[in-house]
Amino acid sequence: xxxxxxxxxxxxEARVYRRTWRGSVISSFLNPILYLAAMGVGLGSLVDANLPxxxxxxxxxxxxxxxxxxxxxxxxxxxxxxxxVMAGIKWLKTYHAKLATPIGIPSLVLGxxxxxxxxxLMVSVVFAVIMTAFRVAPLFESLLxxxxxxxxxxxxAAVTTAFTSRLEEESGLPLYFRFVVIPMFLFSGAFFPISExxxxxxxxxxxxPMYHGVELSRAxxxxxxxxxxxxxxxxxxxxxITVGTALAVGPFRKRLTP
Length: 258
Hints:
With 258 residues, the protein is mainly α. The protein has one domain. It is 80% helix and 0% strand. It is built from eleven helices and no strands. Helix 2 (22-50) packs antiparallel against helix 3, helix 3 runs parallel beside helix 7 and helix 3 (60-91) runs antiparallel to helix 8 (172-187). The longest helix has 32 residues, at 60-91. The radius of gyration is 19 Å and the shape is globular. The mean pLDDT is 93.
């Protein structure tokens, strides 16, 4: 019974988004264009001029684009697990309203994860289309690279949801983004190979979900072999999603039921 009720949660989120999508559609298209133009083409021209062999044998734009795709999915997933969850529990109490229906806590959490995945998928597909427009890769390969990005976005949504549901005050969210999300964005292989990092920081980067997503997406786009076997990376990301979702159920039940 959980899955059909979770789909009702997904439907309710989609109905709300149908009225608010205009507020996000411009940034969904503009951010990839600005990132790829500024970092990939602008900064990339300087990198390519000083490194004729390129980064790992490819142009900086081609190296960067899959990493930014995954980074965008990661940030989107973290955002869905942060402010939306805090609003549902504390600010707007929309989760209380949902629980007044036959929907239970497991269905609520699963439905939230389904909607988070839908949002990550939307943003990632747009980014993939922009990648093709920048001639990074054909459309088919760009869309295939969305798969690892979706796993990373879901992993971050799950873990962030579990974290946010334990917060009494929203002051913990800026700290979470400052000390977890932003460092992951900068040091997980999107902008440069992690081999350039100190050894201890390489180990930290290797443990992050974003690194595995970047390696998989870059392998699809460029045709390289990922440093970690793809099956291990997929299982690792799936474990993040599963554990994070499971860890969110308890705090949801504690905070939302009498």
